[in-house]
Specification:
The protein has about 280 residues and is mostly helical. It contains 14 helices and 2 strands; from the N terminus they run ααααααααααααααββ. The chain folds into 2 domains: about 120 residues, no CATH class; about 150 residues, Lysozyme. The protein has a two-stranded antiparallel ribbon. A hairpin with a 2-residue loop joins β1 and β2.
Length: about 280
């Protein structure tokens, strides 16, 4: 898959027909560039070896920003991040590569790169929890992509935590309903807990709003009480109009984005009449 992405990048980043194009190997782990960039790459690798993931991530994010217009180096960094489990970083590199390719008039990105931008990390866990709660796993993956970009340690400015960005008070309530005791906010940083709680909460919203997943997404973000006020307790016939008239700009943007992500996931992973088996974590 990495070779396929490399072929695509070199097809528009370098003149076609060169001897290099015919012999693309797995990306090197040392990106080309000025010595400052090489030092950042080495520092990030050293921090990973020491187990200091947060500091390594910060270092690699600085490197990504410096390499934002160098597609081959971004591909190298995406590979490094993916292998190291720095999934949000790998995702952002993939997004940038797709944008650079579009700007250069490149052919459609290969499926491997599009899947890197819309990944299925924690896929087996999501699939098991989602199918057990009558939730589409692809919808929940789209939600995770928007909520945390697959960073299990993500914490929002408001305190929402983990892959599914569950608020501590909401997490405490969910824990009481599911019989998870004792509960602490730290548990939300564990993928298995965050996914279980997030799927359950989304499933409750789906039941509350008659399986209307647009309303359920709005409720996941703004709370079911807000959605009841906006709809007057009535079914929504025009979802586009509903989204456009959501009073909270943050929720309006949230629903739009998850909707877009969901469509991308369906394009990439939905087979005719069935869902592709999601890969192991």
């Amino acid at each position: 898959e990495w070779k396929e992405i490399g072929l695509w990048v070199r097809g528009w980043h370098r003149p076609s027909g060169s001897e290099e194009d015919a012999a693309i190997a797995q990306p090197s782990l040392t990106p080309a560039g000025p010595s400052a960039e090489e030092k950042l790459a080495r520092r990030g690798a050293a921090l990973l070896r020491l187990g200091w993931r947060d500091r390594a991530l910060t270092t690699y994010q600085m490197l990504r920003d410096q390499l934002r217009d160098d597609p081959e180096a971004l591909l190298t960094l995406a590979h490094t991040a993916s292998e190291a489990g720095l999934y949000a970083l790998a995702l952002s590199c993939a997004e940038r590569l797709i944008a650079l390719g579009a700007k250069a008039g490149a052919a459609e990105p290969p499926k491997a790169l599009r899947r890197l931008a819309y990944p299925t990390y924690y896929g087996r866990l999501v699939q098991a929890e989602a199918e057990g709660n009558a939730v589409d796993p692809l919808l929940f993956l789209a939600l995770i992509r928007q909520e945390s970009r697959f960073d299990p340690q993500a914490v929002s400015y408001a305190g929402a935590t983990g892959l599914a960005q569950v608020m501590p008070e909401t997490g405490k309530w969910i824990a009481s309903r599911l019989g998870v005791e004792p509960f602490s906010t730290r548990l939300l940083g564990r993928p298995i807990v965050s996914v279980r709680f997030g799927v359950w909460y989304l499933a409750q919203a789906l039941e509350l709003f008659d399986r209307d997943w647009i309303l359920a997404l709005a409720a996941y973000n703004a709370g079911p009480g807000s959605v009841r006020r906006w709809t007057g307790g009535q079914a929504v016939a025009d979802h586009d109009l509903f989204i456009e008239t959501i009073p909270y700009a943050q929720t309006r943007d949230y629903v739009r984005r998850v909707y877009e992500h969901y469509r991308r996931y369906e394009e990439l992973y939905r087979r005719p009449h069935a869902l592709e088996k999601l890969p192991a974590d």
